[in-house]
Amino acid sequence: MSFFADKQTLNDLNIPGRHKNNSISRLFDEVITAGGRKLMDEMFQYPLTDYDAINKRSSIFKYFTGNNIQFPFTQAEFGIMENYLASGSNSNRLAVGIGVISKKVMQIAAQDTAYQLLNDDVCQTIALLNRFSAFAATLPVEESQYKQQIENVKTIFNNKDLIWLKQETGIANLTLLKIVKYDHLLRTRLHEQMNQLLELLFQLDVYIAVANVASRMGFCYATALPKHSNTLSVSRLFHPTVRNAIGNSLSMDESRNVIFLTGANMAGKSTLMKAFGISLYLAHMGFPVAADEMTFSVKDGLFSSINVSDNLEMGYSHFYAEVMRVKTVAEQVAADKDLIVIFDELFKGTNVKDAYDATLSITEAFSNNRNCFFIISTHIVEVGEALRERCQNFRFTYLPTVMEGSVPRYTYRLTEGITADRHGMMIIENEGILEIIRGTTSETK
Known about the structure:
2 domains; 16 helices; ATP-dependent DNA damage sensor activity; MutS; nucleotide-binding; DNA-binding; ATP-binding
């Protein structure tokens, strides 16, 4: 079973879509091979819930991050080898020979290019295989999770049917007999071994791409713990696609499984919550996270309610869409799943009185599920004051606003407590909106 996040959550956190601006998938999209891109997509679609598997994968990424290793092929030259090896058949050597001879005859009789193209493909593949063999020999041999993959590569190249490979280094043209022999070996007799090499190369492509992003962006690798540990600790967490982002530290466990977040508009609440969700999703993939340090116990899934909108097709108002979203999460929590839940301003689609009552009752009810972690934000600070009197498992935090005259400045640094900051009207006044409506701006005078 893989770590679960539904479509709403993935879109809230802007995780899928390598072609989407600032998506998390796009951030890591530095792979070179088509097979590597497919493997990367699978990793994003199916995060892990086995802490040992997570740690094994992240240790491989860490190995490549620490050793500054570059992928040994360009996209164009790898594509030639990939296409050639992927077109293997079950033909015996005689059938291969007849096919090659036919191409040679057509070259002589009709200046057909098929024979020369086959020669070029075989020579290019030989050159790249030799390069990969030499590359594998240079990889640091140390106690790491990637050690077995290195051994697998060396085992394939030590196959007695590939002894000839190094003897053909730098060759540009082969005799007809050698083309028949090598083509049969590479695409038929050793077809399974070549597929194994391609898979190892796809993995290598992903490992190097992710490691390069981690190194360039200053990300760390999280340590996964068993589910029963029920803990989370992250230092200097920041949003991976926000320039010069401010880092914040968070911690949660069974005794403090709810973070209640307040703060004025533009103070950074939504960005912090998205950063939190993204870090948990990437951590369950074994990918690097935007933080200095992170330790977490594995969970079953992640749900968020950040950008819930009305649904005209279903006839849902904004408020009813919010209610249905909370119901969906409640059903998952009631199913005794260990979840991470992010609610950004619950019930903002209704009046303040209903929003207060609903936020208070729903938040308190959710918090009793100590196997789940919640981060909940609201502008209704009175809810926080009521919860502080009734619940002992909350951590109350806020993102402050510093007033410089009539201009608000935001520190984006998480602070303990509950804030009553409200500067909506001040921002409206600073923008001169009322003057525009009244027609009293300087431009109209």
